[in-house]
What we know:
It contains 5 helices and 7 strands; from the N terminus they run H-E-E-E-E-E-E-H-E-H-H-H. The chain is an alpha+beta fold. The termini are far apart.
Amino acid sequence: MKRSFPSNAVVGAAGENLVLSHLLRLNYIAGLAPYNTKDYDLIILSEDEAVAKSIQVKTALFTDEIRTTDYKWILNKKHETDINNLIFCFVSMSTKSSDNKIYVMDSKKVSEVTKMSHRIYLKLPGMKGQTHNESSMRIMSSNYLSLVTNKKNVNKIQEYLDSNELDFLEKHSEGWLEKYLDNWGILDE
């Protein structure tokens, strides 16, 4: 019997297999990492098999009924640390259409964005004016300005944030992620 919405494990496996199929189509030597590998899901080799890179896939599933361009993926505090030769593929996958997107970026960029966005989140008040508590959860977002602002703080963010943080929000608002869409060339660097 078909379920109305797939489980998180199935969504994750679907994202991994989508990325793997793209890698194979692009003629990379690639495969699934052993089950429960700690920091990555896929492995690729250079043509001469001398250089290996690891890929971590994060998948967000949306339904066509709640179509959005504000994509979000759950990360963890550990993603604030850059890991050499680790590439992230952030997959936005539809339940009903083939309108899937894959954003490809290196671990250094992910760690920078994760650190700064969490720092901003902690500085800004919540919906009820409360201070946000520290946690291990982090979020990769296609629009950080939309993610961290609410009706309590949207008009006062200059009071809470320094110029570097405001600059980050400006540079990482709607559309910033598009330069990483199908950024497969990063695998050859």
